[in-house]
Design brief:
This protein is mainly α. The protein has one domain. 67% of the residues lie in helices and 0% in strands. The mean pLDDT is 88.
């Protein structure tokens, strides 16, 4: 895995959140947006990680599922 510059991560994160906010403001179904983001992310992991690491990533996601904050429109941009 790569280590990412914190600023680069924040810029990427902000762009994704701005896109999600825009999609939700234009009456796109939030569950559809979540499905697209999830499948896209999992597809990236599947393409870039060895199978063992991909499986471990999914295990970690399930393990920390209760630590994930609820989405609040525009709340992540501050």
């Amino acid at each position: 895995m790569n280590d990412y510059d914190d600023n680069d991560f924040k810029v990427c994160y902000r762009k994704i959140i701005e896109t999600v906010n825009s999609l939700s403001e234009n009456n796109n179904e939030p569950l559809m947006i979540a499905a697209v983001l999830t499948t896209t992310g999992l597809s990236l992991y599947r393409s870039l990680l060895p199978e063992e690491d991909y499986d471990k990533m999914l295990e970690v996601m399930v393990e920390f599922k209760d630590d994930i904050n609820s989405y609040q429109h525009r709340g992540y941009l501050n």
